[in-house]
Amino acid sequence: MSMPVVVSLHRNNIQESWGFRLSGGRDYRQVLSVKKVQPQSPASHCLSPGDSILSIGNTNAHNLTHMQAHQLIKSAGNMLQLTVEKCGGQDIDRLRPKGPVKFSPWKSNQVLNSY
Amino acid sequence: MASDEYFDGYMEEEEEWDREGLLDPAWEIQQKKTFTAWCNSHLRKAGTSIENIEEDFRNGLKLMLLLEVISGEQLPKPDRGKMRFHKIANVNKALDYIASKGVKLVSIGAEEIVDGNIKMTLGMIWTIILRFAIQDITVEELTAKEGLLLWCQRKTAPYKNVNVQNFHLSWKDGLAFCALIHRHRPELLDYYKLSRENPLENLNTAFDIAEKYLDIPRMLDPEDMVNSAKPDERSVMAYVSSYYHAFSGAQQAETAANRICKVLKINQENERLMEEYERLASDLLAWIKKTKPWLENRITDNTLPGTQHKLEEFRDYRRKHKPPKLEDKARLENSFNTLQTRLRLSNRPAYIPTEGKLVSDIADAWKGLESAEKGFEEWLLSELQRLERLDHLAQKFRHKCEIHEEWAVGKEEMLESRDYKKCRLNELKAMKKKHEAFESDLAAHQDRVEQIAAIAQELNALDYHDVATVNTRCQKICDQWDRLGQSTQKRREGLDEAERILERIDQLHLEFAKRAAPFNNWMDGAKEDLMDMFIVHTTEEVQGLISAHDTFKSTLGEADKEYNTIITLVQDVARLAQQYNMTPPDNPYTTLHAQDIANKWGEVKQLIPRRDQTLQQEMLRQQKNETLRRQFANKANSVGEWIEKRLDFVAAIGVHMKGSLEDQLNEIQHTEKECQGFRPHMDELERINQEVQESMIFENRYTQYTMETLRVGWEQLLTALARNINELENQILTRDSKGISAQQMNEFKMSFSHFDKNKTSRLEPKEFKACLVSLGYNIRDDKQGEADFQRIMAIVDPNRSGFITFEAFIDFMTRETADTDTAEQVMQSFKILAGDKPYITAQILRQELPPDQAEYCIQRMAPYSGRDAVPGALDYMSFSTALYGESDL
């Protein structure tokens, strides 16, 4: 996991949407995170899918429910400051094996030895 | 890429236009009719129409309007002037708009349109038709024309007498139009009555129906179609494309509605499962809360019947009340797992029960119940044992008290008597001897009084319920005993004082007194022994009592001799008295009479056979208990072994079994059925156990099993089987819903169980990583690899429990990258129903969805608040994301 970073989002008026989709929250027992980001929106270039949200403004996001976080972000003025943990993209497909999987125990010897 | 392909197709059309389009006046007439109708089919939405295609587009105004209607977009404001340059400007705005959509208008200029050049006008309209009505038809990435052709071929494939190869000759007989209509709306015409021989009739039928029911205006003239050698290709294409839009639009809406229904049904079913879980959890927790205090209460009313009643209550609890609750608990856990699997499979966030009803809360409460229950039965049994012993002790106390009190009657009065002050010497001598005898008698009774006091003390120590009566009686005896001692001392002093004055003895009486007193004492002791209470638990103990009794009986010969001697003495006195004609005097040396001895001796002899009988009965009872113990032990040993074997089987299942999931499920279900068949054995054992408890048998050396251990084993077995069945069913559900082949499933399983060393059906992160690598995952052995692995962990174990279950593993392995059920798709589907608007109305929802789902949506959708909102507009976007626990910001 990488170091947390602080990002600032700006919008021209409070009707404009921030341009990202929020998922998770304490009520889902999942870390609040960014699900997707609209291109050409205040959030593009600042957030990317998979980023975990650690705080919203000065509020620690750890104990917020989905709705509380949603309200907090929605009611922010024209500037929104988020502390996020970048995940480096959600793309784990590149790690997947190509074609049907085949169980080959010897491949994992190195993993077990390295611990 | 896609736009390049479009241009290829478009340019091809363009060349065709140049080559053929300008040449044939018949085609021009057809095109005029068709294109005019086509333009009007769109212009009517704006409440206008054209009559003459070369005239009515000349000022550019209706042309711009047409483009706005078709595209749904706003064009720049038209110039309102009537001058030629105004018209040219407006036509140019229209042409610019067409060009902005990526169409090159090679040979069409605004002047020619304004001038009313029919060929140019038709060419421009064709360009518009091609761009806005046909270009969007993409079937398997073919050009627009080929796409439309392929669509027609597919839709008419089932109709043997239709063969669509082009957009001219193939349509002449009208059957292709009819087939298209019949394929989508079979109720509108009776296709199989049509004949190739009546082209005019076929065409009219199709065109009429299309106009009346499909809202497609007539664009072709049946006579033209039949009479021309080759119908105009563009006219046919324009008309056929209207069919495509009419049908594919309906189809799209249907597909969209189906998708929404599918997603909503999943949500409704999940919500139902959640409610059921909450209800079951509340009921179970309430029952536990009610039951636990009763089990925690370790106080009895200190009486044997009260305690036995409590044991019966506990038996009811253990056999009738608890087992169904245990089933409820298992059902609860299983339905929780099923629900979570369903949620995962449908990409929904995990379900979190309300505060205090988590699975772990249930498990904790249950554990609390079991720990309260633990030792309850043992405690009750030991309490029963204690109370039984107390009861016997109290009985013994009463018996000894009775004997003593009987003995003590009159003793105090006798000792208080001052008779020796006014008697004769020989009487005094006798009195003194008598008193000595009494003193030894008193000493002999000391032991008994001590025993009584000791028993009373033990009863106090063991908390006998009626200890007050015992203490009062004991106190009375002790007080009296003290007084007796003092009185005896006092009387002795009186007698000693008078001894020097008075002496005379009666030898015969003396002899009698000497023998009678100890014999009488011995008889008292024997009587007491013969009526002694006992409590035993084994045949050996009874045997001990029997041999003690036998020993006693062997001394009876001696006693009989002594008895005869004593009686002879009395008889001698009587004979002497008779001989000398005198009334026999009272024996001054003793209070005992020959008759007393004789009676008591008679009693002793009667008590002996009664004791024999009591001991024999006890022997029989112990033997019966022994038989019961063996009966219980035999049954318990066989049941225990059976259960242990099944438990071993259960321990070996899970991910370590071979064969397909269905085979495994069958095997476990077979065992479960076997268990159901085995239940009568458990019931029989319960019956024997009840008999054992009722016979007050507390230990059994023939088996290591107790009823409790077997019940626990039995319940463990049933619970484990149900859990395994549920797990397998969930695996099958996962496998089937994701379409995993048996081969793949097997690879997953082999890999998982290979790394699940301690067979707990879950992996630690390290094991999981090795497992992924063994399945071909490219996780490198460096910092990047570790970061990749942490990302995978965040997906597989979002709650950070620190381990990976088989289900989560399968879920991850089969996670699809595309076309999963996502918020996006639901939103897209609503958008189709909403006719591309960002909001939807209750009316549309009721019209497109089944009533159940429509109301579900209407209740939950928030009002739409965009600037373009109409009254009653609903926000389907936030509704769609909320279905997946997400929200847009």
Automatic annotation (TrEMBL), chain A:
> Main subcellular localization, coarse class?
cytoplasm
Superkingdom to which the source organism belongs: Eukaryota
Which part of the chain is the PDZ domain?
A: 6-88
Entry GO CC: adherens junction; filamentous actin; stress fiber; Z disc
Query: What's a Pfam family this protein contains?
Result: PDZ
Give the record's keywords alphabetically.
Cytoplasm, LIM domain, Metal-binding, Zinc
Q: Which GO terms describe its molecular function?
A: actin binding; muscle alpha-actinin binding
Its annotated compartments are: Cytoplasm
Q: Which InterPro entries match?
A: PDZ, PDZ-LIM_domain, PDZ_sf
- In Gene Ontology terms, what is a biological process of this protein? actin cytoskeleton organization
This protein is called PDZ domain-containing protein
Q: What organism, scientifically named, is this protein from?
A: Patella caerulea
Automatic annotation (TrEMBL), chain B:
User: What is the protein name given in its UniProt record?
Assistant: F-actin cross-linking protein
Ranges of residues in domain EF-hand: 743-778, 784-819
Q: By its UniProt entry, which InterPro entries does this protein fall under? A: Actinin_actin-bd_CS, CH_dom, CH_dom_sf, EF-hand-dom_pair, EF-hand_Ca_insen, EF_hand_dom, Spectrin/alpha-actinin, Spectrin_repeat
Sorted UniProt keywords: Actin-binding, Calcium, Metal-binding, Repeat
Q: Key word Kinase present in the record? A: no
As for family, the record states: Belongs to the alpha-actinin family.
The record's SMART domains line, in alphabetical order, gives: CH, EFh, efhand_Ca_insen, SPEC
Q: Which residues form the Calponin-homology (CH) domain?
A: 29-133, 142-248
Report the GO molecular function annotations: actin binding; calcium ion binding
Q: Does the keyword Repeat apply?
A: yes
Function field: F-actin cross-linking protein which is thought to anchor actin to a variety of intracellular structures. This is a bundling protein.
